[in-house]
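User: Predict the full complex structure for these chains.
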Amino acid sequence: MISADPGIWIAAFFTIAATSYVFRDNPAFKFAEHTFVGCAAGYSVAWNLTQLQRVGLTPMMERGIYTYLIPIVLGLTVYFQYSTEYRWIARYGVAFMMGQGIGMALRAKMREDFIMQLRATVTPLDSALGIVIFILVITGALHFVFTVKRVESEPFRTLTIIGRYGILVALGASFGNTVMTRLGQYQGRMIFLIRDWLGLVA
Amino acid sequence: MSLWDKLEAVPNWVLYILVLLAMAYPIFRPLGLPIVVGGPSQEAYKAVDATPEGTYAVFHIAYGAGGKPTLQPAAVAMSHHLFEKNLKVIYFCDNAVDLANIWGIFDEVSPDTRYGKEYGSDYVVLSLTGPFLTQAAVVLSNLLETIPTDARGQSLKGMPMFQGYTETEDINIVCQLTTSGDISEGWVYQAVSRYERRLVGGWLSMMTSSMIPYYQAGQIQGFIDGSKGAADYEVLTNKPGEAVKITDILSLTQVVYLLFIIIGNVGYFGKKYMGGGK
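Assistant: Here is the predicted structure of the two-chain assembly.
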């Protein structure tokens, strides 16, 4: 039986309005898009203010941890972006955030994304998959070497072609996964429309 | 327009309608296609299963509304497993939508009635804010000092599950389900590299090609690959749910896509080798 819940009807309307874009841009899609962006922005502001109060202001006032003032003030400096005269102050907040992010990620990024990956590429050469990965990493990297003249002659040319096919296979797999993801995301809405809204199946 | 041209340029609306029909049909008439459990899902299951009882598991939910159809079934299946293993679960998120997703998980899993678990004694929900790497570091290293309260505003230090809690030493495994590549990689940087915890991931299928090197290098113990991975986990935990139903839809829709890829290629190569202009 078709749902009598107004919330379900609103959700169904927005689902259909958002989907209508696949045929062409239209006012219903625009309305859904703007509503979504507005709601997301509103939620985000409310959420962050609540968090600031819960994690920053309350412990500072109740437990007397006044060091929390430092990140709060640094965060507030970002709003100087809106002043032409004092825009330079915003750089302190942004610089601190960037520095902190880089500091936290740099060591791990080098280890996990570079050293560990390099090790994983060259060590397990005891299986067909390991050998294929090893060959395609080398030939794939070779494909992007443009500064050395010799890569245009044999046998480098053949190796770069192998690398190119490896890259194409990877891109194909990535495309297939993307299609599957998009379908996976939409099928939840299909089930919602057919089951929860129209009540056509239990 | 020749036959090859027509095959090469099938109108979009034809494809969309056929895809919608292929999606709808299995909802009315489930096909019941067999599910062959993939290796990464099996490894993810084994990693959770090998976690000693009574230790802590961090479960990060970060898929919002967009990833919910794909990853919420995985979160439900994994939550069943975590509660069955009697782990103390620290759920956390950093936005209002994911907080709602977490309460939705509890509605489906019913940890209190089904597993006899109690909020504050066996599981807790945290809501954080700020850059993700900082959030992960806080949860894994300095939780009680930095985050005074849970998502409901209750004091963490007063909760039974945090009595005698020694931060990183007690956290045995980190599970994360996300639609963000930065978060998936961020967990490798923090949980694996910095704090040397075991990590199980879960993400959208389109992220797999960029995340699978971490699995192959042994940095991630196992992972859930979108809807298919979620269905695998439901099969492994013997609790078939939404993901198992979705697998039928996915399979049939993929057939339609494959068909159109073949038709497009027939048109392309037909025009190239057999001629036929306008």
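Chain B touches chain A through 60 residues (CB under 8 Å).
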